[in-house]
Amino acid sequence: MEKVEKYRNYMEIIVETRLESLKDSLDVCLCDVCRNDIIAYALNQLPPQYFVTPKERLLYKLRSMEFQHQADVAEALIQAAAVVRSKPRH
What we know:
By secondary structure, this protein is mainly alpha-helical. It has helices at 10-22, 32-45, 54-64, 67-86, and strands spanning 8-9, 50-51.
């Protein structure tokens, strides 16, 4: 039987990576609970981008480098940090 690739939401990778680059400027707790809340909130504001094959992943990776896309992800993370900062669950 041939191994089937598992689907992944590339937006998760993008949001996690972008959070790492923005974390010092967000002024928010980044314990595991708060970090997960920020990521979940941001992902709910952004469209999913599922891929199965390496070729699809490459296409999404190229799209994620677009300026507007980076701005949308940053904005979602900034909003998420504000929400979590105002009502942390840790």
